[in-house]
Each structure stands twice: as C-alpha cells, then as structure tokens.
Amino acid sequence: MHIKTNDTVVVLSGRDKGKQGKVMSVDPKGGKAIVEKVNVAKRHKKPRKEGEPGGIISQETPIYVSKLMRLCPKCGKPTKPAHSFSDDGAKFRVCKKCGAKIQ
Fold first, then answer.
1. Is 41 helix (H, G, I), strand (E, B) or coil?
2. Contact of 6 with 23, CB cutoff 8 Å
3. Exposure string for 53-82, b = 16+ CB within 10 A, e = fewer
4. Which of 6, 102, 12, 8 is nearest to 63 (CA)?
5. 20 and 76 in contact (C-beta within 8 Å)?
6. 6-16 tens-digit pLDDT
7. Do residues 45 and 61 lie in contact, with contact meaning Cβ atoms separated by under 8 Å?
8. Phi and psi, residue 20, nearest 5°
9. pTM (2 decimals)?
10. Res 1 pLDDT > 90
11. CA torsion 72→74→76→82, rounded to 10°?
C-alpha cells in the first residue's frame, strides 16, 4: 500500500473530494483506511451501562485507499510515493514531483 498510518492525505473522489486529513489506521487486507474528519457518518448509540451516555455520535468510516493520495510535506502536492534505497540499503519513500524524502 502507498498509504501508511500518520500520513497526510487528500481525497481524490467522492462526497469528501478535496478534503485533507491524517490517516488514523489502515486495513491492507480490505484496501481501506480511516482518515481523520473524512467520510464521517452518524451513529445512534444506545447506553449499555448505567451512567454511560447514549445519543447520536459522529464517527469516521473506512474509505478505499484508491481514493486517497499522499501529500508531499515539502511541495504540498498530492503524489504517489516512489521507493528508493540509500547507500546502506535502507528503503525510503520519495516524492515523484519534487524528489524530497518522505518519512
């Protein structure tokens, strides 16, 4: 997957097109990720224990990774990171547009 946890991403298509957010979790098997403040749905929660509040809560739902693209921290443009190797053999991600190293 080209998306990892704590990456800053932009949504390419759908209801939340153009929104940016931080990736909270990734599901590689399902090909989905949960992004902060993107694809928010309302859930009706019933109180299960005494003293626990119930009501309508907002919750982020998973979105397909194919609809997301990583934002480069240096140039600020959406890019699919390329992979490169350093002299000691360590693998790291590189922005295809500006060539900056991505953590």
1. strand
2. yes
3. eeeeeeebeebebebbbbbbeeeeebbebe
4. 12
5. no
6. 999 999 999 99
7. no
8. -115, 150
9. 0.85
10. no
11. -20
